[in-house]
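Same chain as my last thread, 152 residues:
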Amino acid sequence: MDIRQDDPKAPHVAELLTHHLEELRSVMGEHAKALDASGLSAPSVTFWTAWQDGVLAGFGALKQLDDTHGEVKSMRAAPTARRTGVGRTILQHIIAEGRKRGYGRLSLETGTAPLHAPAIALYRSAGFVSCEPFADYQASPHNQFMSLDLCR
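reply #2:
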């Protein structure tokens, strides 16, 4: 699998990003906090795509919250690439990048719907644990928060 830093506004990302946003909004409504292409293009966000045999298999992003804290954003495997390890590969890449940057912690916000169960299992298997809301997030029945201590 090839992981590349990429442009979230690129045409090859549009269909999967639209699918990602529509699916999240369909189960979370106004509580969906996923970033669109403009949000993923912010200077504080680094966006990567994953490719298998020349086909877009997924994407993920890392947002710098401060000098020691990053946020995992917009993890998504393409429907045809689910259960192929793309999510784990992207997450490992993001964790490695967080360590490289000297972050002490990575955090994330995700949903509580059954749709989110595979992602939650992935995050837990990588060492993420439940935590309190961070940054400007507010707790609701539709979201949960996880954190990974990178200093261990």
